[in-house]
Write a structure and sequence with these properties.
The structure is a single chain. By secondary structure, the chain is of the alpha/beta class. It has 2 domains: 249 residues, P-loop containing nucleotide triphosphate hydrolases (Rossmann fold, 3-Layer(aba) Sandwich), CATH 3.40.50.300; 194 residues, Rossmann fold. Helix content is 30%, strand content 27%. The strands form 6 sheets. The chain has a 6-stranded parallel beta sheet with strand order 2-9-1-10-11-12, with helices on both faces. Helix 1 packs parallel to helix 2, helix 1 crosses helix 14 and helix 6 runs parallel beside helix 8. The two termini are 35 Å apart.
Length: 482
């Protein structure tokens, strides 16, 4: 028997689809339903490594965690990772298969539909429920032909749709109704229900508006989901905090440089969750002022981001930060930029070579084969504690001995580089590093446990906000009367 399937689409990017699918996965899993997430096409430079040796979008990793199942490449069969010059690396069923040019985007998607459906059918045969997340908005008539991310997939897989609008952005009733109006007749019939997401305030303030929307759109509004206070989950796209307030007095100031092709910025989440630590993202030289620690995150195109560092003046500000005793950590592409030299003999990023920032005594060569690995081990520095994470990189960099999980350290010990994503997630390791460098004890909590608690809060909210009959159809028992 095939699984019950449901697709959540949004009126726009950032409407909350990723979180809602994660919350529903957690809610169903708590009631004993075997549920799996699925996103046919994702465009993001935030990726995670799966146990079957591939990579998927970070959002689907989060949703798998919520469902209590191992992340698998079938959960996100097409991952597009934007690079420089209007191209994207294509990751198909977990493995790099080539590049996609923006001008050929519409035509190049159609051959990807068969493997997308193949992955979907495997999940549908293995689980009770498959929850599908759309991408962007279905109300884009210029992208409908050949679409595999929204209604094109829903039609091919014969999946019903719940449409989500974000009231926090304003204009939610117009955006939901307008999206329905843009859909052709067949696509509109697939929309079973509407959800108003991230509502702040008393429900009475909405008055008759939800009922009026249902009447005009011909689709029931099955829930108004309140904004969950201070919900902090890994983000799929934009970093959660760009340069802004410098944080409260006395907090450790961590500044991550947000170059144009930054990737895996959620590597900073665990640091930001520490009491006594304030994380912000920077794009201008002055944003580094007052930093105790500067982090260079991953990069999807190291050469262009390295050039941006120099052209923007951020590289000069970073060197000044080091001259005055500041500390720096480079992660993956950030590690490569901190080294002495980077070369690309096989044209992974178009070929060529460039001098690095010279803060670490290493050189990097980009290899055609991408290295993908989950990592579990014991740190050699700063303390022999457990550390976990994963590696996703083309770079080959000679490692200094005795530093794992770091690859290199500067002579003065103030600059470190590592290929390990989610480096700070392990509580004991994060605490050891903060103590060693800043004499800051920290809480040392496990990041995954914190995320799990957030997912439970979100699931609780959805169980109360969505109409019971619609949840019962997915396998959630009805709420007791009264």
């Amino acid at each position: 028997m095939s699984a019950r399937t449901l697709m959540l689409q949004g009126t726009c990017s950032g409407a909350g689809k990723t979180a809602l699918v994660a919350g529903l996965c957690r809610l169903l899993a708590r009631h004993g339903v075997r549920v799996a997430p699925f996103k046919p096409q994702n465009m993001s430079n935030n990726a995670a490594v799966t146990r079957d040796g591939g990579e998927i979008g970070r959002g689907q990793w989060l949703q798998a965690l919520a469902a209590g199942v191992p992340a698998h490449t079938d959960m996100n069969p097409v991952l597009l990772k934007p690079e420089a010059e209007r191209t994207a690396q294509v990751v198909l069923q977990g493995q790099v298969t080539g590049r996609l040019e923006a001008r050929a985007f519409r035509e190049a998607r159609q051959p990807l539909l068969p493997p997308v459906l193949e992955s979907f059918e495997r999940l549908r045969g293995a689980y009770d429920v498959v929850l599908v997340e759309g991408a962007g908005s279905p109300a884009e008539p210029n992208l409908r032909q050949g679409d595999i991310a929204n209604m094109g997939f829903a039609e091919a897989a014969d999946v019903p749709v719940w449409l989500v609008g974000d009231i926090d952005r304003g204009g939610v009733f117009a955006s939901l109704l307008g999206t329905l109006e843009w859909l052709d007749v067949a696509d509109r019939r697939r929309v079973e229900a509407l959800i108003i997401n991230r509502f702040r305030g008393s429900p009475e303030l909405l008055g008759e508006a939800p009922a009026q929307l249902a009447e005009r759109g011909g689709v029931p509004v099955i829930g108004v989901v309140p904004a969950v206070p201070d919900l902090h989950l890994p983000e799929e796209d934009a970093p959660y905090r760009m340069a802004g307030p410098r944080g409260s007095g006395g907090a450790l100031q961590v500044v991550a440089v947000a170059y144009p092709r930054m990737s895996n910025h959620d590597d900073l989440d665990a640091l930001d969750a520490e009491s006594g630590v304030h994380v912000r993202f920077a794009r201008q030289p002055r944003d580094l002022d007052g930093a105790d620690l500067v982090v260079l995150p991953g990069s999807k195109h190291v050469f262009s981001d390295l050039a941006w560092l120099r052209e923007s003046g951020v590289a000069e500000a970073l060197l000044r930060h080091c001259r005055y005793g500041g500390r720096v950590v480079g992660l993956c592409g950030g590690l490569q930029m901190l080294g002495e030299h980077i070369e690309d003999p096989e044209g992974v990023e178009g070929g060529g070579s460039a001098p690095g920032l010279g803060l670490l005594p290493v050189r990097t060569r980009l290899a055609a084969t991408k290295q993908l690995a989950e990592v579990h081990g014991h740190a050699e520095w700063p303390a022999p504690v457990t550390v976990t994470g994963y590696e996703i990189h083309h770079g080959v960099t000679g490692a200094q001995e005795g530093l794992f999980p770091f690859v290199a350290r500067s002579d003065d010990g103030r600059v470190l580089g590592s290929y390990l994503h989610r480096l700070f997630d392990s509580g004991p390791f994060r605490r050891a590093l903060l103590v060693e460098w800043f004499a800051l004890e920290g809480e040392g909590g496990d990041e995954q446990a914190r995320i799990e608690a957030e997912l439970d809060r979100l699931a609780d909210t959805l169980e109360q906000a969505l109409e019971p009959a619609w949840l019962e159809a997915l396998g959630v028992p009805g709420r007791p009367a009264g």
